[in-house]
Each structure stands twice: as structure tokens, then as C-alpha cells.
């Protein structure tokens, strides 16, 4: 498998105290945990949850990873989710939130303190071993965190006995966003004359948006798109119709949910102007348009998908719509 074994820490090993902790705090019976990985934000949800996940904590993890369904509480990543979304997620039971900081270097692939990839690995190690099994749910950039980790560290997952049953991605940003392209261009000084509301987004954080969530950054990793080592990525999202009055619509090609275009939401294998609702599963889908003499004929654009990604539902409209349908909604 691709990548190198991580041990428990990147390049680290288990000490006597850690081994003792595992022996004395481990669960006596197998549990199923639901890990929830949020999208990118200017907020530091790692610190909001009390710091990095303790990979040796197991089921005795601190309140920062405890079950919760109240918007604004530490367990629900300090307001990332709306109250209704947090309630839906909390109804899964045995929820463990994977909070990470979007401001550290490396973005969705970061191994820095509170980095996304590091936090996800610590959560897998703490909750998805020793007979336990995990379902993984992601939102937006969280899909990049999970898919890139599996693409490059599937060997560590196998070596450490991590068990993942289901991976479901809501409004996946695996194809990146044109809005991130603009924000990154502003940060780098290569884009000028952007609308005022886009500039205001940049000022929320000194780093703007990291390149991992741009269309060119998110799609640069061939393995992340094509190699899941047997895991199936099931996706839900809004239908891709921009809400009336959404000011971001003109900046996104084709149909969109106001943050991501359908080329990302539908797991399309290229950045393109997708004018159709996602087809089910991972099969090629199409958009019909009138053509020929007097527009009397039908012609079609065809859109191919990355193999590991399966659309199980596209319903509603906005960037958070898919959360309503991600709880055990069908399988492929």
C-alpha cells in the first residue's frame, strides 16, 4: 500500500506510559463510533475542543470529544454546525467530533499541531481499534482530509488494526472551489479587483485560504481521487441549484450550492461547467441540450466520475443541505 507506517505519531513510537494507558483505559467491549470531520474555517476548532485529541484516550477521551448535539458547545465544534444540523448529527449516537485548525500550514493535509490530518489520525487511533469500528462522516473540506489520508496512509490503517465501516461525505470539496482560487489569489497577490464581499472573506484570517482547497490544489493529488484501497466514499449534497440571490453563483461554473460547483459535489473527474444534477452511484451522467437545425435535436454532455466516489443523494440546495440526509441514507 501507498505511504509509510505512522506508528502512533508521525515518525514516533509507543512509550511505556502509553502502553500502560492502553491496557488500563481500553474498552472491555467493542463499540461503534461515529467520527465527524468538519470543513475548513477561520476558527480553530482544535483549541475550542481543548487541544489535540489524545490518541491514547480511547473511550475515556475528554469532554472535547464527548457526544453532543447543542450548537455552540465544545462537543459540536463551537458553532460550526447549526442547531438543527448538530441535532441530526448527535442523533447518530456515539459521536466523536474531529476538530482541527484551518490556519496552520498544510491545510487539509497538515501534520502540524492541531493540523487536520494529524487530528484525524489521532481520532482513528483512539476510537477505531481494539475491536471498535468507526463510521466516518465529513463536511466540505473534511472530505479532502479523509480521502487524502487514506490514499497515502492506508498501510498505517491496516498495520494498526483500524476498522472503518462507512465513509459518508456531505457536500464534498474533493474537487476544490473557485471561491478558494480567488481567496488564495488575493493572499498571494495575484488577483486584483475582486468583489468586496470576497475581500471581506479574506480578512477573516491572516492566511486567506490555503491552496489545498483550491480547484488546482484539491485535484493535484491523483491518488486521492483514484485510490481508496477498497473504501467507498458515499456522498450527499444540495441539488446544485444556486439559491435565489446567492451572490457567489456567478463565480462558480455551472450548478452550485453557493460554495462548491457541481464538478466537486458530483465527484466529476475534471473542473468543468456541470449543468446537470449528479447521477446516482459512480456512473457517467449527462446533460441534455437542444441542438441541430431549428434546435430540433437533442445533444448531450457527458460527465465522468472518480471511481471511489458514489452519489447516494442530491437534494435541497445549500452547502449544508446534505447533512439532513447523511444518516444511514442507503448504500451502494
What does this structure look like?
The protein is an alpha/beta fold and 332 residues long. It has a domain at 1-170. The chain is 25% helix and 15% strand. The protein is built from ten helices and eight strands. It has helices spanning 16-25, 45-48, 83-90, 116-127, 142-159, 178-188, 196-202, 215-218, 222-226, 262-265, and strands at residues 32-37, 95-98, 133-139, 164-170, 233-237, 285-291, 297-303, 309-314. Strands 2-1-3-4-5-8 form a six-stranded parallel β-sheet.
Please outline what is shown here.
By secondary structure, the protein is α/β, with parallel strands linked by helices. It has helices at residues 16-25, 45-48, 83-90, 116-127, 142-159, 178-188, 196-202, 215-218, 222-226, 262-265, and strands at residues 32-37, 95-98, 133-139, 164-170, 233-237, 285-291, 297-303, 309-314.
Element order, helices and strands? HEHHEHEHEHHHHEHEEE
Count of helical stretches:
10
Which strand-content bin applies to the residues? Answer: 5-15%
| Global outline | globular
Q: What is the strand tally?
A: 8
What is the radius of gyration computed over CA atoms, rounded to a whole number of angstroms?
A: 20 Å
- pLDDT averaged residue by residue: 76
Helix and strand content put the structural class at alpha/beta
Low-confidence spans? 1-5, 8-27, 58-77, 200-208, 328-332
Major sheet attributes: 6 strands, parallel
